[in-house]
Write a structure and sequence with these properties.
The complex is a heterodimer of chains A (940) and B (243). Chain A has 940 residues and is α+β, with helices and mostly antiparallel strands. Chain A has 31 helices and 39 strands. Chain B is of the alpha/beta class and 243 residues long. Chain B has a single domain, classed as Class I glutamine amidotransferase (GATase) domain (Rossmann fold, 3-Layer(aba) Sandwich), CATH 3.40.50.880. Chain B is globular, with a radius of gyration of 16 Å. Chain B is built from 6 helices and 11 strands. In chain B, helix 3 crosses helix 5. In chain B, the strands form 2 sheets. Chain B has a 9-stranded mixed beta sheet, with helices on both faces. In chain B, strands 5-8 form a two-stranded antiparallel sheet. The chains are: A alpha+beta (940), B alpha/beta (243). At the A-B interface, helix 1, helix 2, helix 3, helix 13 and helix 16 of A face helix 1, helix 3, strand 5, strand 6 and strand 8 of B.
Chain lengths: 940, 243
C-alpha cells in the first residue's frame, strides 16, 4: 500500500504576505516573496479523486499531484510533524474521508512547503531553522522522511526489572539521572529499602510511578518541607468564609455563587515546556488548566480563561539571548499563536492576556487561568468504590510528554531541552472541547463518582490518586495507543494531552459510554477499583506493577529544607528616591512610560483571542469607544437570564520582587482585590488564587519564599480574603550551555474572583463626560517609586515599594473597598468611572480613562503634595481614580478617606498637566501613537 | 405554538448553548440537533421548522473553515437539506455556520453541492476578536425586516471571514461592515476580514437562507454590550410562526 500526495495552493494567500512581512521585520531584508503550499499525504487503498471535495475548494484553491512550486524560482523547504506526533488535522481528514464514503484511508499527514524568493538556499534554511519550525516536535520533510508508512510505528521494549540493591549514594544518583527520574537521593534510598521489603527488584513501571508521584511538580516537596502549603491553608481555615465551597483539595478552588451554583478558579504554570518549545508548551498550558476546571468536583464547565507570559525583553537581539535559550521575541509570538490556536476552538472567553518582561526570565513564566461554573451539589467528588470502573476518555496515548513532571521539576539547561524533548507535545483542542461538552451531561446523569484530568504523570498519577483509598487494577492493553511501540511504563507515564479519567459505578457504565458516543468522545475501560489497597497493572500477560498505595502516598521522604537570610536584599540599587522631572521633560517621559512594555497597548495580541464567546461577557479585556482601552478585569453574567456577575482579575508584576519579595505579595493581593472592587465586585465576596514561581531551591530562596507565603497568609487574614487555590513552581533557574545560571525574579501572581449582584451596576474605566472631576481615593507617597515602570524607564529598580506593613494602612484599604462598594450600590450612582492604580502610576490610568472615553484631562497638581514624577508615576496600589460630577460633595461622598482632586475632564483630547504655575500639554494623539507603537514591534 | 428550531451540533461546535438561549429569548423553542444523530437517521431535519448552524470550530476547522462539516452535509444530508431549503424554511449560519453554508453550497445560491463562493483567511492572516458595526440592506427577506438602513453592533471572532467568489457569481449582501459614519467599508479594522464590498452577511436568492460572520447571539442583552442581535432571532421566530 503506497503513499500518495496532493499539493494544494490558495489563489490568494494572506498567510504568504504575512509571513514575508514578518521575516523581513525579523531582519531578512533580501526576501522578496514567500509562497506556501500544503502537502497532504495519504496511506491506504484510496482514489485521490474521491477525496478532492474535502481537500480543495476550487473557488479559492488549486491542486496537483505534483508540487506546483518550481525549484528554479527559489529554495523550497517542507516542514511537517515528526513521525511520533499525530498531526492535529489527521483525525478530521480521516473523518471527512469517511463522510465521503472513502473507507480505505489508514492515515493522513499534512505538512507545509515554503518557497523563498530573493534569498539563497543557505539563507532559506536559516530562516526556517530560526523562525518556522521547532525540532522538538517537527522535522524538515525530505523524500525518505516517512519511509513506507505514515503511521507512528515500532515495537515496545519489554518491562525491565531494576535492582537498587547494594548501590551507594553516587550510584543511586547516577541511575536516577540516567533514567531521567531526577529523584533526589532520599527518594532513591526509600525505593532501595522498599525493594528489600518486597524481596524483589522493582519494575521500571513501578519506579517511574513512584518518582512521578513524588516529584516536586506533583507532590510539592519543596513547599511541603517548608510548611508553606499548610500556612496558606491554615489562613483560609481561620478566615472561615461562609462562601467557601472547596479549597486546596481539588483541581481548583470554588466559592458559592448564586442560585445553587459555585464558581471555580485555578491558575497553572507550564514554564519548562513553554521555554523549550513555546507553541506546544503554551497550548498544553491552556489545555491543562482548562481540564483542571472540567475535572473539578464531578465536572465543572469552563467560563473564562487567561494567558500570562513573563519573558525576557522580546526586543533584544539574538546576541543578547542566553546561550541555549529561545529568543524571547519568538517565545512571545509563538505563545500568542498558541493561545489563539488552543483557546479560540475551546469556546471559552479570554478574560485577560498579560505580557511582561524581566531579564531573569530566560526560563519564561507561562501562566494560564481557568474559571468554571458548577452546581454546588456536584462540587465534591465521591470516593471511588470497589467495583467502580476506571474509564479513560479523550485522546489516545502516545509517546508525547513522557517525563514531563520530573523534567519540569529540575533546573533547565540547554541540554535538558535536547534530552527531554519528548516532554513537549502539541495540543488537540477539538478533542478537549468534545469532552468539555459531554462531562456535564455525564455528571447530571449520575455517571461520575469521581473525575480527574490527566496531566503530569499521566495515567500513573491519576490512577494512583483516585485509587488511593481503594486500590486499583489497571489493564494497560485496553489503553488506546497512537503508537504501538509504547512499553508499559511509557503507557503509564505518557502525558498525552486531552485525556480525563473517571470512576464510573458499574451499573452506570453502559449509560456513560452511550453519552460519550453521542458527543464523539473515545472512551475505554482500563481498570477497576479493587479494595485491596494495591496499585497493580497488567500488560501483555504480565503483572508490571504491584505496589502498596500506603507506600506510594505515605512514604515520600520530605527532607527538611534549610533556610538562610540573605546577606543583603535582592538587587536593589542606589536610585534616588525621586530622580526629579521637570514639566518640560514630562511629554517625553510620559511617552516613554506609556510605550513601556508593561503599560503599552497589548491589543495586537489580545484581539486574537475570542473574548465574547458564550455570549455573557459584560466587561471584556478591551473596551471604550475604540474598543481598545485595556480594562484589566473581566465581568460575566454566567447564569443565563440572571443579572448575577462574576468578576475576575489578575495582578502580576515582575519588578517588585527584585526590591522586596514580601512587599510584592502584599501589593499584588491589594491590587487584585482593588481592581475587582473598582469594577463592582463586593469586597466581601472575593477569593484568591496564587501562583508562585521561584528560582531553584537554595536556603536564601527558601528564606524569601517563606517571607512571601507568610505575608500572603497574614494579608489574607487581615482582609478576610481567602486563598482557595494555587500552584507553585520552584524550578525557575536556567543554565546556559556555557554554564551560567539565570534565576527568575521572585514571582507571585494573584488572581481574584468575586461576585456582584447585578451586572448592570458595573463601573468601567472610561471617562463618561467633560467637566467632571477626577479624584484619587486612597493615599499616595510620591517618594516610594521602587519597582515602578518609571524607574525602569531610567534603568533603575529603586529601594522601596509603595507598600507598608502598618496596621493603619491595612485598615484604611479595607475602608476604601467598603466605601466604594457602598457608593456603587447607591441609586444615584455617583461614581461614573473608576480605575485602580497600578503599573505606570496615576498618569497611565488617566491616559487610559481619557482614551477610553475620547476625552482629555486637565491635571492640577499641588507641589506641596510632592515632586512631579512621584505624583504622576508612583504606583500607589490600592488607590482608585474615580470620575464624579463637579457638583458632588466629596467630603460627604468619601468621608474620612484620604482623597485628592487630580483634575477635571475635558472635551478636547489633551492631557494638560499644571504644576508650579506652569503647564505642559500632552495631546492624546501623540500619547496614543507612543502607547500603540511598542507591541506592534513584538507581535506582528 | 412556539416554533421548533434546530441548533446543529457537530464535534467542535461551541456557540450552540448561547444560540439556543437567544432563540428562546426571541420566543422560539430551540433544541440542539446532533449531527451524528442526523447522519444515522435517529433525528431528521424535517422534525424542525427552522435551522441554525452556530459558530465554533466544527471538526477543528481543519483543512479550511467549515470544510469537513460542509462535506458531511453535502454527502450525507444532501436531500434533507435541499428539501429544507426548497420548502422555504429559515436557515441561519453564524460565523462557522456561515462558512459551512458556503462550503455546502446552500449559500449564496441555495443549491446544495454547488460551491461558488467561500470565506477565506482574513487579510490580516490573524484571528480577529472585535466589536463591529453593521449596516443592514433592504433584502426583501424576512431576516432584515425592520432593519434596513439601521446600524447594528455585535462582535466578530474569526480567522476566516473574507468573502471570496468568482466575479459572475450572484452574491446578495444582507449586512455590510460599517465605519464610524455608518458607511460600508473595506477598511481595517472596521471590516476585520478585509471582505470585498464590506460584505459581512449574505442571503440566498429566495431569502430564506442567511449567513453572517458576526455573532447576533452574543448581542442580545444591553449589559453585554448590545441587544441588536435579538431582532434577527425574533424575525426568524415570527417567520416560522407564519409558515
Amino acid at each position: 500500500m503506497g503513499i500518495v500526495s496532493v499539493f494544494v495552493r490558495r489563489h490568494d494567500d494572506p498567510e504568504e504576505r504575512a509571513l514575508e512581512r514578518q521575516l523581513r521585520q525579523l531582519g531578512c531584508g533580501e526576501l522578496t516573496a514567500v509562497k506556501i503550499e500544503r502537502v497532504y499525504r495519504f496511506e491506504g487503498d484510496i482514489e485521490i479523486s474521491a477525496l478532492l471535495p474535502l481537500l480543495v475548494n476550487p473557488v479559492f484553491e488549486t491542486y496537483s499531484t505534483e508540487t506546483m512550486l518550481r525549484p528554479e524560482d527559489g529554495p523550497v523547504v517542507e516542514i511537517g510533524y515528526q513521525k511520533a506526533v499525530t498531526d492535529p488535522e489527521t483525525p478530521s481528514i480521516i473523518e471527512g474521508a469517511k463522510a465521503l464514503g472513502v473507507d480505505g484511508l489508514i492515515w493522513a499527514r499534512l505538512s507545509t512547503r515554503y518557497q523563498f524568493f530573493g534569498v539563497t538556499e543557505e539563507q532559506a534554511n536559516e530562516l526556517v531553522r530560526q523562525h518556522l519550525y521547532n525540532p522538538v516536535v517537527q522535522m524538515i520533510v525530505t523524500d525518505g522522511s516517512y519511509g513506507d508508512t505514515l503511521r507512528p510505528s515500532g515495537k515496545p521494549e519489554p518491562t525491565r526489572r531494576i535492582s537498587l540493591k547494594g548501590l551507594g549514594d553516587e550510584e543511586l544518583l547516577e541511575i536516577s539521572e540516567r533514567n531521567s527520574w531526577f529523584a533526589p537521593l532520599e527518594q532513591m534510598k526509600t525505593l532501595q529499602r522498599y525493594e528489600e521489603r518486597l524481596g524483589r527488584p522493582l519494575t521500571d513501571a513501578e519506579i517511574e510511578i513512584v518518582v512521578q508521584s513524588w516529584s516536586d511538580h506533583c507532590y510539592h516537596t519543596t513547599w511541603k518541607s517548608l510548611g508553606l502549603m499548610k500556612m496558606l491553608m491554615d489562613a483560609t481555615e481561620s478566615i472561615n468564609h461562609p462562601m467557601i465551597v472547596s479549597v486546596f483539595e481539588d483541581n481548583a478552588g470554588a466559592i458559592e455563587f448564586f442560585d445553587g451554583y459555585a464558581i471555580t478558579i485555578k491558575g497553572e504554570t507550564h514554564n519548562f515546556p513553554s521555554s523549550i518549545a513555546t507553541f506546544g508548551g503554551v497550548t498544553t498550558k491552556h489545555g491543562g488548566v482548562i481540564r483542571d476546571t472540567i475535572g473539578f468536583g464531578k465536572g465543572a464547565y469552563p467560563i473564562g480563561g487567561s494567558t500570562i507570559m513573563g519573558t525576557m525583553d522580546p526586543r533584544i537581539s539574538d546576541s543578547e539571548v542566553p546561550k541555549g535559550a529561545l529568543n524571547p521575541g519568538h517565545i512571545v509570538r509563538e505563545s500568542v499563536r498558541a493561545t489563539a490556536d488552543y483557546c479560540n476552538p475551546m469556546g471559552i472567553p479570554m478574560m485577560f492576556s498579560v505580557y511582561r518582561a524581566h531579564p531573569g526570565y530566560a526560563k519564561c513564566l507561562a501562566l494560564g487561568h481557568s474559571l468554571g461554573l458548577v452546581p454546588i451539589e456536584h462540587a465534591k467528588k465521591d470516593e471511588p468504590q470497589p467495583g467502580d470502573r476506571f474509564v479513560l476518555i479523550g485522546g489516545r496515548t502516545g509517546r508525547d510528554g513522557i517525563h514531563g513532571a520530573t523534567a519540569s521539576s529540575v533546573q533547565m539547561t540547554g541540554e535538558t531541552a535536547e534530552k527531554e524533548s519528548a516532554a513537549v507535545q502539541i495540543g488537540h483542542p477539538i478533542v478537549e472541547r468534545k469532552f468539555m461538552e459531554a462531562i456535564p451531561v455525564l455528571r447530571d446523569a449520575g455517571c461520575i463518582r469521581a473525575i480527574t484530568d490527566l496531566g503530569a504523570g499521566g495515567i500513573s498519577c491519576a490512577a494512583g490518586e483516585m485509587g488511593e483509598t481503594t486500590g486499583i487494577l489497571l489493564d494497560l492493553d485496553a489503553v488506546p495507543l497512537k503508537d504501538e511501540s509504547l512499553s508499559a511504563w511509557e503507557i503509564l507515564l505518557s502525558e498525552s494531552q486531552e485525556r480525563m479519567a473517571m470512576a464510573v459505578p458499574q451499573d452506570k457504565l453502559d449509560e456513560a459510554l452511550a453519552i460519550l458516543e453521542r458527543f464523539d468522545v473515545e472512551a475505554s475501560v482500563i481498570g477497576t477499583f479493587t479494595g485491596d489497597n494495591k496499585y497493580r497493572a497488567e500488560w501483555r500477560g504480565e503483572t508490571v506493577v504491584d505496589i502498596d498505595m500506603s507506600f506510594l502516598w505515605g512514604e515520600c521522604p520530605i527532607v527538611a529544607a534549610e533556610v538562610r537570610k540573605p546577606q543583603k536584599g535582592q538587587v536593589a540599587d542606589d536610585a534616588p528616591k525621586t530622580p526629579g522631572l521637570s514639566l518640560s521633560e514630562l511629554p517625553n517621559m510620559a511617552k516613554q512610560v506609556l510605550s513601556h512594555y508593561h503599560c503599552c497597548d497589548q491589543s495586537p495580541a489580545g484581539f486574537q483571542f475570542d473574548s465574547t464567546v458564550q455570549g455573557r461577557t459584560v466587561v471584556g479585556p478591551f473596551a471604550g469607544i475604540t474598543g481598545k482601552m485595556p480594562t484589566n478585569v473581566f465581568v460575566a453574567a454566567p447564569l443565563r437570564g440572571k443579572p448575577y456577575g462574576v468578576v475576575s482579575t489578575i495582578a502580576y508584576n515582575p519588578f517588585y520582587g527584585d526590591v522586596d519579595p514580601a512587599g510584592l505579595v502584599q501589593l499584588m493581593m491589594i491590587e487584585a482585590i482593588t481592581r475587582a472592587v473598582a469594577v463592582g465586585a463586593d469586597p466581601e465576596s472575593i477569593a484568591l488564587n496564587d501562583n508562585f514561581y521561584t528560582p531553584r531551591y537554595s536556603p536564601e530562596v527558601g528564606w524569601h519564599l517563606k517571607q512571601m507565603v507568610e505575608t500572603a497568609a497574614r494579608v489574607s487574614k487581615e482582609y478576610g480574603t481567602p486563598f482557595i487555590s494555587g500552584k507553585d513552581s520552584s524550578s525557575g533557574t536556567f543554565v546556559t550551555t556555557d554554564g551560567q545560571c539565570i534565576d527568575v525574579p521572585m514571582t507571585f501572581a494573584v488572581a481574584a474572583v468575586g461576585k456582584m449582584e447585578d451586572v448592570s451596576r458595573v463601573v468601567t474605566k472610561d471617562i463618561k463626560a467633560a467637566g467632571d472631576r477626577i479624584v484619587l481615593v486612597g493615599g499616595i507617597d510620591p517618594h516610594k517609586l521602587g519597582g515602578s515602570v518609571y524607574l525602569d524607564c531610567l534603568g533603575k529598580r529603586g529601594e522601596e515599594l509603595h507598600c507598608s506593613s502598618d496596621p493603619d494602612f491595612t485598615r484604611r484599604q479595607l475602608q476604601i473597598w467598603r466605601r466604594l462598594h457602598e457608593l456603587y450600590r447607591r441609586e444615584d450612582r455617583p461614581i461614573k468611572a473608576a480605575a485602580a492604580v497600578g503599573e505606570g502610576g496615576i498618569f497611565t490610568r488617566l491616559f487610559e480613562m481619557a482614551y477610553g472615553g475620547g476625552f482629555g484631562v486637565d491635571v492640577l497638581l499641588n507641589a506641596s503634595a510632592g515632586p512631579l514624577d512621584g505624583l504622576l508615576f508612583a504606583e500607589c496600589i490600592g488607590s482608585v481614580l474615580i470620575e464624579v460630577s463637579a457638583h458632588e460633595d466629596l467630603q460627604a461622598l468619601l468621608g474620612d478617606l484620604p482623597f485628592m482632586v487630580i483634575g477635571e475632564t475635558t472635551a478636547d483630547p489633551v492631557i494638560r498637566v499644571s504644576f508650579l504655575d506652569e503647564c505642559a500639554e500632552l495631546p492624546m494623539d501623540d500619547l496614543v501613537a507612543a502607547w500603540e507603537s511598542t507591541f506592534k514591534e513584538v507581535v506582528f | 405554538m412556539r416554533p421548533r428550531i434546530a441548533v446543529l451540533y457537530a464535534p467542535g461546535t461551541n456557540c450552540h448553548e448561547e444560540t439556543v438561549f437567544a432563540i428562546q429569548r426571541a420566543g422560539g423553542d430551540a433544541e440542539v440537533a446532533v449531527l451524528r444523530e442526523l447522519v444515522t437517521g435517529e433525528d431528521r431535519l424535517d422534525n424542525y421548522q427552522g435551522l441554525v448552524i452556530p459558530g465554533g470550530f466544527s471538526f477543528g476547522n481543519h483543512i479550511a473553515g467549515g470544510r469537513v462539516l460542509g462535506v458531511y452535509l453535502v454527502s450525507r444530508l444532501r436531500e434533507q437539506l435541499q428539501s429544507f431549503i426548497e420548502s422555504r424554511k429559515p436557515i441561519l449560519g453564524i460565523c462557522n455556520g456561515f462558512q459551512v453554508l458556503m462550503e455546502s453550497g446552500a449559500l449564496p445560491s441555495g443549491r446544495v453541492g454547488s460551491r461558488v463562493a467561500a470565506l477565506t483567511l482574513n487579510d490580516s492572516a490573524k484571528f480577529e476578536s472585535r466589536w463591529v458595526s453593521l449596516v443592514a440592506k433592504d433584502t426583501g427577506s424576512f431576516w432584515t425586516e425592520g432593519l434596513a438602513g439601521r446600524t447594528l453592533r455585535m462582535p466578530v471572532a474569526y480567522a476566516e471571514g473574507r468573502l471570496c467568489h468568482e466575479s459572475d457569481t450572484r452574491v446578495d449582501a444582507a449586512f455590510l461592515y460599517a465605519d464610524s459614519r455608518g458607511m460600508p467599508t473595506e477598511g481595517y479594522p472596521e471590516n476585520p476580514a478585509g471582505s470585498s464590498r464590506g460584505i459581512a452577511g449574505v442571503v440566498s436568492p429566495e431569502g430564506n437562507v442567511l449567513g453572517m460572520m458576526p455573532h447576533p447571539e452574543r448581542a442580545i442583552m444591553p449589559e453585554c454590550g448590545s441587544s441588536d442581535g435579538l431582532v434577527l432571532f425574533e424575525n426568524m421566530v415570527r417567520y416560522c410562526a407564519l409558515m
